[in-house]
Amino acid sequence: MTASDWRKILKQLRNKPEKRDKFLKHNKPQERTTGIARKKCERCGRFGAHIKSYGLNFCRHCFREIAVEIGFKKYS
Questions:
Q1: Residue extents of the structural domains in the chain
Q2: Which of 5, 43, 64, 66 has its CA 20 to 30 A from that of 49?
Q3: What is the CATH number of domain 38-76?
Q4: What is the per-residue pLDDT across 1-53, written as a single tens digit (0 to 9) for each?
């Protein structure tokens, strides 16, 4: 079940709270504690090449686009 399917079903169960609660109990995506899916880019949502130093939480692609705006300089 994809995330979009999960949200569509929740919309359908909005008026039936008991069934919605049971659905959430058994089908809600679990929160990740480890692994690649835990760290996402805050800007675009990518998982790989994650820069978390200085509390940035960006992928390298987004970091290159906005580095000058944030205040980083290129020395070479």
A1: 1-30, 38-76
A2: 5
A3: 4.10.830.10
A4: 566 677 788 888 889 999 989 988 888 777 788 887 788 888 888 888 888 88
